[in-house]
Specification:
By secondary structure, this protein is an alpha/beta fold. The chain has two domains: about 5-20 and about 90-224, HAD superfamily/HAD-like (Rossmann fold, 3-Layer(aba) Sandwich), CATH 3.40.50.1000; about 20-90, DNA polymerase, domain 1 (Orthogonal Bundle). Helices cover about 40% and strands about 10% of the residues. The protein has eight helices and six strands. The chain has a six-stranded parallel sheet, with helices on both faces. Strand 4, helix 7 (about 175-180) and strand 5 (about 185-190) form a beta-alpha-beta unit. The radius of gyration is 17 Å and the shape is globular. It starts with 8 loop residues before the first strand and ends with a helix.
Length: about 220
């Protein structure tokens, strides 16, 4: 295999992959938009799962506009609620510490690339003592487009001076999987149980039910 295709950088999503926050994000989404007259069901949320907050807000505004929209105010309300949850209640996803230690023991570079804001990313790594585990923390808020656009992944690889084809991304949402695949990276999908059988996840190189399922054999298979 070409040197440019060996895995040199592992990139992790955050929400729903490392931190158990997606159910709370979705609960918050339903509560916030109910204030604007939108009754959002679980099925309706499939389309916004993994989107950047500002893009999610505009999605629902386009779906059913409300009077005098202040998108920034809605986004700040979101972030305040979620930050409090990150600080006080949220737990790690199964295997989060395991997978970071797995690659740390290999001496590999690690990055975190999330649709969430840098404020939430820093809250996460500080709460769980992960700040020194990652060589780069990066948010899609710095990009013109969030996931499923590949920008956040391409920028992460560029900042780490690594070819995208030498990156392995871990994602839980379909939008995230599509973003990493569009960036020409290897992708491991770890979907929520509710979404596990969605056909679109077939574009990933592997699909796991837990981060703990990843092991040396799977790493060698991807790096072959």
């Amino acid at each position: 295999m070409s040197e440019n295709h060996l895995i040199k950088l592992v990139i992790f999503d955050m929400d729903g992959l490392l931190i158990d926050s997606e159910p709370y994000w979705q609960e918050t989404e339903r509560k916030i938009f109910a204030e604007y007259g939108l009754e959002i069901t679980d099925d309706m949320q499939h389309d916004t799962f993994g989107l950047r907050t500002d893009e999610q807000i505009r999605y629902w505004y386009n779906y059913k506009p409300w009077k005098n929209p202040d998108f920034r105010e809605v986004e700040e309300k979101y972030n305040t609620i979620i930050r409090s949850y990150f600080e006080d209640e949220a737990g790690l996803m199964e295997g989060a510490e395991y997978i970071i230690e797995f690659f740390e023991n290999k001496g590999m570079s690690l990055a975190l690339a999330s649709s969430s804001s840098m404020e939430l990313i820093r809250t996460f790594v500080d709460r769980f003592g992960f700040r020194n585990k990652f060589d780069l923390l990066y948010s899609a808020e710095h990009e013109k487009y969030g996931k499923p656009h590949p920008a956040v992944y391409l920028s992460t690889a560029q900042k780490m001076n690594v070819f995208p084809s030498s990156c392995l991304a871990f994602e839980d949402s379909l939008h995230g999987v599509v973003a990493a695949r569009a960036a020409k990276m290897k992708v491991i999908a770890v979907p929520d149980n509710r979404h596990f059988n969605i056909p679109g996840y077939g574009v990933a190189d592997m699909k796991l039910s837990s981060l703990k399922e990843f092991d040396e054999n799977k790493f060698k298979e991807l790096n072959r």
